[in-house]
Amino acid sequence: MEDMIIAILKGIATLFYNPILYLLIIGLFIFGWQRVRRERRSFGIKVFGMFDNIFASAAPSLIMGLLGTAVLIALGAALPAGVVVLLSCCYLLIMLTTQLRFLSPAISGGLALIAAYFLPAVQTPYVFLNRWIEEIRHVSFLSFGVFVTVCLFIECLLVYLWGSRQTSPRLINSPRGKKIGAHEASKLWIVPLFFSCAGNRPYWPQ
């Protein structure tokens, strides 16, 4: 039991090793600042404060994270560390586009699945990188597919339950070229998911 508790605590700590987490948090602040700036430029006043969307997204993210974690563990989905790195790299590439709508797990998960399927057997001077490549090449696509499907399910629930809250007004061009008012529902949620690492001990929480 003590080993399992230590493994769980180490697993939680790995969440903070991923640089994508901090980039997404920075993205939340930038997104909030841009929204407030646009509303003030268009209407002379902000509807919600810069931090309102950040705080409003925290509870739904944690709730969906717990739900997703329970489903992944119940289904026995296990991904090696190399695949987590691959997913992070895909998210990083998508973030470089600065397009919020592209951060869906449908795109990042799809890119990672394609990359894992076509990744060739290459050797590098770095042992850890070679280990990641081997883990990616031998990943269970069933577990990988289950993981992406759970992420998509979480995204659908977030959009359906919380996506229409705290919409942002903006001015857009009508088909006749005139300015008209509209409401934009654009959200960014950071959902923490914990699952088993693929290895010799299935269901072992790492």
What would you say this structure looks like, in words?
With 206 residues, the protein is mainly α. It has one domain (2-184). The protein contains 7 helices and 2 strands; from the N terminus they run αααααααββ. The protein has helices at 2-14, 19-43, 52-75, 81-95, 105-118, 127-137, 141-162; strands spanning 168-173, 179-184. The chain has a two-stranded antiparallel ribbon with strand order 1-2. A hairpin with a 5-residue loop joins β1 (168-173) and β2 (179-184). α3 (52-75) packs antiparallel against α7. The longest helix has 25 residues, at 19-43. The chain is elongated. The two termini are 14 Å apart. Mean pLDDT is 88; it is low at 200-206.
Task: Describe the structure concisely.
With 206 residues, the chain is mainly alpha-helical. The chain contains seven helices and two strands, in the order αααααααββ. It has a two-stranded antiparallel ribbon.
